[in-house]
Amino acid sequence: xxxxxxxxxxxxxxxxxxxxxxxxxxxxxxxxxxxxxxxxxxxxxxxxxxxxxxxxxxxxxxxxxxxxxxxxxxxxxxxxxxxxxxxxxxxxxxxxxxxxxxxxxxxxxxxxxxxxxxxxxxxxxxxxxxxxxxxxxxxxxxxxxxxxxxxxxxxxxxxxxxxxxxxxxxxxxxxxxxxxxxxxxxxxxxxxxxxxxxxxxxxxxxxxxxxxxxxxxxxxxxxxxxxxxxxxxxxxxxxxxxxxxxxxxxxxxxxxxxxxxxxxxxxxxxxxxxxxxxxxxxxxxxxxxxxxxxxxxxxxxxxxxxxxxxxxxxxxxxxxxxxxxxxxxxxxxxxxxxxxxxxxxxxxxxxxxxxxxxxxxxxxxxxxxxxxxxxxxxxxxxxxxxxxxxxxxxxxxxxxxxxxxxxxxxxxxxxxxxxxxxxxxxxxxxxxxxxxxxxxxxxxxxxxxxxxxxxxxxxxxxxxxxxxxxxxxxxxxxxxxxxxxxxxxxxxxxxxxxxxxxxxxxxx
Length: 508
Ligand SMILES: Cc1cc2nc3c(=O)[nH]c(=O)nc-3n(C[C@H](O)[C@H](O)[C@H](O)COP(=O)(O)OP(=O)(O)OC[C@H]3O[C@@H](n4cnc5c(N)ncnc54)[C@H](O)[C@@H]3O)c2cc1C
Known about the structure:
One of its GO terms (cellular component) is mitochondrion. The protein is of the alpha+beta class.
């Protein structure tokens, strides 16, 4: 493990981060005096974890903050601060601004593009102690919460009032609402409830110089000029630290169903999607896709098979669809009619399907799809490409990348184990995963810029939902033209002229 991490530190270090560090003529690493100062301004001694502190006990305390979820990126921070209030965040940033100390905001550290960990020895500011629900209005469904609240705990908070969070993702047990907003996370409910650009009503943000920008509106309508909060949604900690989030939550559906369908061929996905939209219309809430290899990996890594193996022998891919509605009989009738149509079709579009019959079966069908990210990480070291391309080209893109790996001998030499695709059909978002036996330069060079060129040839996006982080700064050009990149740089400079916020992330 250590060798693999070392290789990757080296690989990342080979990239040129001079632009990211160029703004600060004299960047300062955190020193003993800084740690002493932080200890004074933070209310609890446990809010400071630092190798430079006399009370520091074990370097394993820092490891989790320095390594990302995939074990692909690793930093060398000596110090992590865990403020408890917005005021504490403000004091920290004011000091870092004056001293020119680089900082990395960190939420649940579940990001998949290396944005939440330092590149060098930046100061990590963890939001995990900012974890209070500030208010919830059970009439409007408007929730105001500290940025460090874990997504799942917010779902549990509002469930007794009959509401759900408008977003859901496999990392819900660890990711934080502030991290979700900072990455503009998509997830499994986007098809139904839209993106965070629509559901987030307001934000409280501490700007790089420590100023608190209070945009924590709880109004649904506010047409008073530039909508500043939108700039922070998806900004990945590069222009400020989100400390509070106001979000519109929808009423929990009274009735839900889900079904997994096995398809003989990828070419059936679009006709099945079309039929599904026609039949289910307003009750359709998710339409997810996973190819055969992804499904097999989910089963291999512990998920229960929804079908007997012989029934799905010839399946090339699967879809999971979900309905969420207000009346069970009405929704059941719709889904049954859909299934009858799909099965009775002369050239049957599906091989078979399993419709959940109980809450536990509903959960276990979802677990197959939600567990894919984890199954992939158990199988090997994943090169993850989270791309937007036309749905009709999902299989072609996966096939093209697999052919490239074959042509370069990566598969025959065991360097690449699988090339798989899964994702959100309803949103045109494909998760292309190349699972390697280890992170390795030859694999990386085979895949990049090749994958980005394939995406650009479809006029797609190199990042549909995971963001740019450190992984894709060099590839931003494939999705944003020069003028757009110049304006992004100008926006970054307006907020963070000293370049202290998350250097080397999003922009080179
Ligand atoms: C199993 C699994 C499944 C996933 N499924 C999905 C999915 O379906 N859809 C999806 O979009 N993503 C998915 N992800 C990726 C990840 O969970 C999301 O990006 C998530 O929103 C990150 O939240 P976090 O709190 O963990 O943020 P972190 O990983 O800690 O940080 C992510 C970025 O946001 C910044 N940041 C964090 N908190 C703040 C803050 N308060 N203020 C300013 N900047 C901040 C960080 O600096 C970093 O750049 C998945 C990840 C895993 C491990």
